[in-house]
Amino acid sequence: MNLADLGLKANETRSVCCYCGTGCGVIVEHDGSRITGVRGDPTHPANFGRLCTKGSTLHLAAAPGGRARHPELRSARAGSRRRVGWDEALDTAADRFAAIIREHGPDAVAFYISGQLLTEDYYVFNKLARALVGTNNIDSNSRLCMSSAVAGYKGTLGSDSVPASYEDLALADHLLIAGANPAWAHPIVFRRIEDARRANPDLFITVVDPRRTETAEFADLHLQIAPGTDVLLYNAMLQVLLWEDMVDRDFIRDHTSGFDALRAQLADCSPGNVAGVCGVPAEKIVEAARRFGKARGAVSLWCQGLNQSHHGVANNAALIHLHLATGQIGRPGAGPFSLTGQPNAMGGREVGAMATILPAHRDPANPADRAELATLWGVPALPEAPGLAAVQMFDAIGDGKIKAVWIACTNPAQSLPDQDKVRAALDKAEFVVVQEAFADTETVPYADLLLPAASWGEKSGSVTNSERRVSRVRGVVPAPGEARSDWAIAADFARRLQTRLAPAAAAGFDWADEAAVFAEHVSLSAGRDCDMSGLSYGVLEALGPQQWPYPQGASGGTPRLFSDGRFNTADGRARFNPVGFPVRHAPLPEPTDAYHPFVLTTGRLRDQWHGMSRTGKVAALWGHSPRAEVALNPADLARRGFSAGQLVKIASRRGALVLPVAADSGVAPGQAWIPMHWGGATLAQPGTNVLTSPATDPVSKQPALKQSAVSIKPVDFGWRAAWAALAADAAEASAWMDALRPLLGSFGYAALSLAGRERNVVVLQLADAQPAPAALLAAIDGVFGCVPDDEAVLAFRDARRGIDKRARITDGTLTAIRLVGEVAAIDWLIAAIAHAEPAEPLRRWLFAPLSKPPAGLAKAERTVCNCFGVGEREIRAAIAGGADLDALQGGLKCGTSCGSCLPELRRLVAEGAKLGVA
Questions:
Q1: Residue 584 scores a pLDDT above 60
Q2: Mean pLDDT over residues 511-533, rounded?
Q3: Could you tell me which of 84, 688, 745, 825 has the fewest CB atoms within 10 Å of its CB?
Q4: Distance CA 918, CA 911 (A)
């Protein structure tokens, strides 16, 4: 019996979570037509049965709302799309691409794909672009998150090879977590860190982050550096290691090159010299270096804080240098370990689905690599001209150099920096294809051709997680409408394009199924550093997920790399790479000044993911962070006279965004923090990335999404309005949100969200300088069921003050509220709808301007524990009564399931202890 079948019921199937790169195994419950539940797979070595809040609600995100179901084609550039069949859709695409290629050359088209695709999907797109079209203009949204790590590994270790494994977290006695908040972004990895700390109380944890995150609060030492100064810090740490003779000179001599050249450049990088720029006391830098240098085993973990920088490769190299200088690599409990942001960014790196890499870690700039791959693919040659990375690709679309672009499983109209420029480019393109599972992303309106794709739970293939572990993903239910698997769509298009461009060429795209695609993919890796030639679906079914290298004849995967001290360079030596030297790099991609005095940083929320096209449809996942806000240090709020909840305008040199301001002592003075998830699907403006910088790293071409200079000023909107209504189910809630999205841009401030746990409550909050036109209000009222002539709708109107309020009562409960002109009560009224409060006690208060609910009614509160729906107020009350963490877990159950709330529970208990109440 295959491992995939062990311990399962007839209606259960093993698969992998589709969110972050941790790669958690899941057991999917289904009835053949819909997914009914999800739980962690106890046999999967990435998570051993644990899931975070996002993974544990996958079955709710798999509901049908918002999906693309049928191909749609726009006949005229300014017209609307109409439903067409697959033949017309793909024939039209092939005709348009072929005509552009014949007239303007292969580099006049481009493909922009995604780290959320399966490896098989990735592979087909890559072969289509390079072997058939003849262009290197294929890039992935992994460019936005992992390309600096790729270049950092390649520049030091010789190849994009993550040397460590999750098991090393338990074997180390020092963890250096840099520019990452795994407590929120990789919760199951953080559970393993917590386990390691419990098993080894001497484990020392250093966190480097401009913000005091939940991960930083867990650390023994937090270096709260100024944004953009990472490379200075790690070079100063290396200088301490050298000065105090804590380097492994034998390892340096026998296994590395370039050390002497780098050492000569570090003379000015003493802790005293860099402390002022880094904003960290010199003695803390020395302590961090000593802790690292004296460790028996040191693992470093990092993510976007290092990568999303205009010197991201330098950041990566400087951190890896610490491992090379101390020999902390290639052995248990040691190594530089980049955390992957997307579920299959690693798989995309393996198949070469970015402009700067080819399959199996080949280099498109290397003639021998191109010739070898051309032979394997059976084509005369592969293109020599360098391909364009993501930011440059959309610049070229805007300049008219790229005429047609195929976008698959990603949302550049939300995720790329400098959104105004990106959207203008999409408007200008001659032909835009969007291959997407969700019809409600910000990019879909720009599609001339929309192709419906299957999503998680509906298609099969493979993914590779952060520790190089290849796992099977399995489809268990049919895709909605006419949606198809991504690899099958790309292959079908390739066959049609081939008849128009090179009808005599070998087929090359006639795979019988995804297993055949996988077999071809792994065959290209034979003899390479990422050799997967011994893998097949049969091996993965029989033995479970495996780490590469896994060559032919292997009996198991490879938990860590470079244990023999040989690296993937011509001479077998790792390199100290001068790119890590800081003289070339200003800390920030753009300076602050009197007009833009704040440094904006971006990051992730605990319960949302990327552009929220999936998590944003699950009401329960909004409870922890109910709305988009800009967080400032309380001192900055006081200095500028802001109050929490006040609307402010955040403006960069590129665009502006209106949000409420929030106080957060974890944000350093002079800085601002906005989560990266917010976009035009939920706000009046294009979202966070209307502000961010398009500056890119010169080597990796990764954009500096983490730092931009902004101003923050109050906005005086005199008119406010808010609606909330109970939807019948998630699909109806999604339909309502679809209907409301086109209206958001009509207002100075708009926030569209969900609330509730078991109930789906759609919420819309608006503000503007002038009252909205009656017709616009009527359109919104129609969506929320708050029309004035309905006998179930109660109404109150004060025309003199411009106040107009309505409430819908259904079966004895409040099911909708509409407040125009005055909105003080909206938060507790949303809570009343979400908790199905009886209407009778509410009636006398429905239209009162009360910011707090009357006694006995539900209070609005933020959810801390999503698994059991435990709110912050209830937790604080228990702590005030003397509860510690154990008592909270025993009495309220919070923190006893997925564990995602444990960092916050610890913080709340610690705050209570400081106040003397626990």
A1: no
A2: 98
A3: 745
A4: 9
